[in-house]
Design goal:
With 848 residues, the protein is α/β, with parallel strands linked by helices. Helices cover 41% and strands 14% of the residues.
């Protein structure tokens, strides 16, 4: 059949002149009864889908004509498409500045929603008026210049199959960009578990093949897909209702509250029938959020006008952007059964819209009441007809104006003095260039233009459908889809204007496979199920999730930590041993107190420097020891406060050198005691070593070694200010990094070595019979010193932050206080409280 049609189209155009007998009124024995024709120099063709034939199930006992279900039914709302085309043509013909030397006409035919009638309607437009002789023109007056495509995609494709051979422009909007808008809508409301519904035909399959991967790419799952077979006969609709009813009952129990519908008229008819008859066949109500593609316009047959539409309350649809051209509603008020001579749609529309019969007419759905012809369109229920221009009608309106501007551009480029209709100056394919390049504003104020691929650059409106108890409804514009906007910003919504179905009382509806994972949790996939179905696992320690349904927890920056709910990162507190906190204050006061006590002891010894008890055991070493202990107490203050570069360099080295001076002084005093005892024996050769020179040499040599170690430490790997982000939760430890742990423990170990030598020598000399012997006190002081520092090492290594510093300060203060308290209190007691004992005679008498 298609090959035959192509052969007819390819026949030469001049055959009609030689065989004019072929162009007779009898050439089309079965003309299309529903057409709307207005003559003009240039004709715009239109294929509409207004009238539909219901058929009973085929029977071999009846003639095909007897199987028609009464008369054709009219989708009366679609009649507005015809009126929009007629209104646009009237505007152009009334405009003296647009196509001044030519008039536009139009020829509209009905497709009846079936391919074969669409082909015939298209070929009829290409034939001589009222004669079905494809590719033959028996006159040159009515020149078809373009065709405006059908309501649905398959009708437009069928039209394009024929007219593509003629390179004739076909005005069809691209609907694919709305799919990405639906994805943005689903993401906006966090709907990740939805149902998909479409007719089981080529368009429906293409829709599902497009949507399923698109949804998956954007983190959305479809719980199910419903494919409704095409309905050819009335009985099939009833059988399908019963068949699909069980499926809908199952799907109604799922957690999917959002259904995305590819809203072809045939599928919407089945859906509405099922929802209407659901209570009569014990099906549960289906209260969902319906999302419809741009084919949806609440179009209804006349017998559907009393069907309940409450289920669609709160539905959302993407419609081609529309506006209201001035004068259109006034134009509609002039429409009547006799308003236009060539309108073959008006009778069917009028009778079904108003439920009455015109003379000699019997239309299904009309009553015995006779139409007066004075009925007003504004009184028709909105479900059957709307006074405001709908999206598809606005497309038709814009398409006509686009063709007129393209023709006007062609006229200007050729000649300002020749009529467009004369001499075949304009061919359909010649206006393609002008269609791509035109930019103009229509009477509604919208700017129209075309892309390079010939697609009209128009966006979509997001419509929220609000129904009322009386069967009327309102379409509320709640957003806009601009396919040419930057990625992620294509969709703009006004959430506060959206009205949801009454079953969703709190906020917007939820449509997810399971409850969302709260902040502080991350998703964990359920085995064997789609990725939208998951469990919620708490975030690991030091990790957070700030948003709902995060796929994985994230780590906090190093200077932050997770709060107890693990949903937010909190800046860590700076931690160091401060002078202002209780621990720092206590240690500071202890250091100052011991420093004052040491200074007082040093003052007492200086004041009584000439007394025997001060002179005993080398007075100079006593002064050195007391002064070094004073510095030991004061150097602990270097460890308190926020570590700085200078304090980090000084505190360990100062502590090491000063303590080495104190320990070397103790060692020198102990060795001096031993040498004095040995040197007092007759014939001893060590007498010459007893004196200040030996003691000073011991102190100096010990100090030089420690200073050398500290100098090497500072030159190779000096301490520096550092931060520890991880040791303590919620804290940033500001500390002094020792640089080289080996050098730190070398300095510490050297002091331990001096202490152990002093302890050993003092222990061996503790029982020497000398009233001036300090060995017993030194032994005990070294025992205290070694005990403190032996316990220091494991304690120091097991603590972190400011408590580590506090341990070292305590060890400094305790060991220094041990030296001070074990050696000097007995002497101070005699000097201050028992001065009568501080004489040489008493010391000699005490000699053992």
């Amino acid at each position: 059949m298609l090959i035959l049609l192509l052969l007819l189209i390819l026949l030469p155009h001049n055959v009609c002149k030689k065989h004019s007998s072929n162009c007779t009124a009898d050439d089309d024995p079965l003309p299309i009864p529903h057409e709307f024709y207005q003559p003009g120099d240039l004709i715009i063709g239109g294929i509409v889908s207004q009238v539909f034939n219901f058929h009973n199930t085929p029977s071999f006992t009846l003639q095909p004509a007897q199987m028609l279900f009464n008369e054709p039914m009219s989708v009366s709302k679609n009649y507005q498409h015809n009126l929009a085309l007629a209104f646009a043509v009237k505007e152009i013909n009334d405009n003296p500045n647009l196509l001044p030397n030519a008039t536009l006409g139009f020829h509209i035919l009905n497709s009846y929603y079936v391919p074969r009638m669409t082909y015939k309607a298209t070929l009829s437009l290409l034939s001589t008026q009222r004669r079905f002789v494809p590719n033959f023109k028996c006159d040159t007056k009515n020149k078809l210049i373009t065709i405006i495509g059908g309501l649905t995609a398959d009708i437009s494709v069928n039209i394009a199959t024929v007219i593509s051979i003629y390179k004739m422009p076909q005005m069809v909007p691209n609907e694919d960009s709305q799919y990405r808008g639906v994805v943005r809508l689903l993401q906006h409301f966090r709907w990740t578990w939805i149902g998909l519904m479409a007719m089981d035909d080529d368009n429906g399959v293409r829709f599902l093949e497009t949507m399923e991967p698109l949804l998956t790419e954007n983190g959305i799952c479809f719980a199910f897909t419903i494919r409704s077979p095409k309905i050819t006969y009335l009985q099939e609709a009833i059988d399908l209702l019963l068949e699909q009813g069980d499926a809908f009952t199952v799907h109604n129990r799922t957690k999917a509250n959002v259904y995305f519908v590819y809203a072809e008229p045939a599928f919407v008819f089945v859906l509405r029938m099922m929802l209407f008859l659901a209570p009569f066949v014990s099906l549960p109500p289906l209260h969902k959020v319906w999302i419809f593609t741009c084919q949806w316009d609440f179009a209804s047959f006349s017998f559907e006008k009393n069907w309940d539409i409450e289920s669609f309350h709160g539905a959302i649809s993407f419609t081609v952007h529309s506006n209201q051209p001035p004068g259109f509603q006034e134009f509609l008020q002039d429409v009547s059964p006799t308003w236009a001579k060539g309108d073959g749609f008006i009778q069917n529309f009028w009778e079904q819209a108003f439920g009455c019969s015109l003379k000699n007419s019997h239309v299904l759905g009309s009553s015995s009441k006779t139409c007066t012809g004075d009925e007003r369109l504004e009184s028709v229920p909105m479900i059957l007809f709307e006074m405001s221009m709908m999206g598809h009608s606005y497309n038709v309106y814009d398409a006509v104006h686009a063709v007129a501007h393209a023709l006007h551009g062609t006229h200007i480029s050729r000649s300002k003095h020749r009529r467009l209709a004369e001499g075949g100056n304009v061919r359909p394919w010649q206006i393609h260039h002008f269609l791509r390049s035109i930019v103009f504003n229509n009477s509604a104020g919208d700017t129209l233009s075309f892309q390079e691929n010939g697609e009209m650059k128009k966006g979509f409106d997001v419509i929220n459908w609000v129904t009322f108890d009386n069967g009327s409804f309102a379409r509320v514009r709640v957003g806009r889809l601009d396919p040419w906007a930057p990625v992620g910003k294509e969709l703009t919504l006004q959430d506060d204007r959206i009205v949801w179905h009454k079953t969703f009382m709190q906020g917007w509806p939820v449509s997810v496979c399971n409850e969302n994972c709260s902040p502080g949790f991350s998703r964990k996939k359920k085995e064997g199920q789609k990725f939208c179905c998951y469990d919620c696992d708490p975030c690991p320690e030091e990790m957070i999730s700030e948003q709902m349904d995060m796929g994985a927890c994230i780590s906090c920056p190093q200077d932050q930590y997770s709060n107890k709910h693990q949903n937010q990162c909190v800046r860590k507190d700076i931690s160091f041993l401060s002078f202002k906190e209780p621990l720092g204050i206590i240690l500071t006061w202890l250091a100052i107190a011991f420093s004052l006590i040491t200074a007082m002891v040093l003052g007492i010894f200086w004041k009584h420097r000439d007394t025997p008890i001060v002179k005993a055991n080398n007075r100079s070493l006593t002064y050195i020891l007391l002064f070094s202990l004073l510095l030991c107490f004061l150097c602990s203050l270097l460890f308190i406060g926020q570590p700085r570069r200078v304090t980090c360099l000084l505190r360990q080295t100062t502590f090491g050198v000063v303590f080495s001076v104190a320990l070397s002084s103790v060692l020198a005093k102990t060795i001096t005691v031993v040498l004095v005892f040995i040197a007092t024996k007759p014939g001893s050769r060590l007498r010459k070593w007893v004196g200040k020179r030996l003691a000073n040499s011991i102190v100096l040599s010990c100090i030089v070694i420690q200073v050398g170690l500290c100098s090497l430490w500072l030159s190779k790997s000096p301490p520096f200010q550092d931060t520890d982000m991880h040791s303590l939760p919620g804290k940033i430890i500001v500390e002094c990094n020792e640089g080289s742990a080996a050098m730190f423990y070398s300095v510490l170990g050297y002091m331990g070595f001096l202490a152990m030598v002093s302890f050993t020598v003092a222990f061996l000399a503790r029982k020497l019979p000398d009233s001036f012997n300090e060995a017993k006190f030194i032994t005990f002081s070294m025992l205290v010193f070694c005990s403190v520092w032996l316990s220091f090492v494991p304690t120091y290594m097991s603590t972190k932050g400011k408590y580590m510093v506090a341990v070292e300060i305590f060890s400094i203060l305790a060991s220094s206080a041990g030296l001070l308290g074990c050696i000097f209190p007995p002497k101070c007691y005699i000097i201050v409280l028992r001065p009568e004992l501080n004489n040489r005679e008493h010391m000699i008498r005490m000699k053992i």
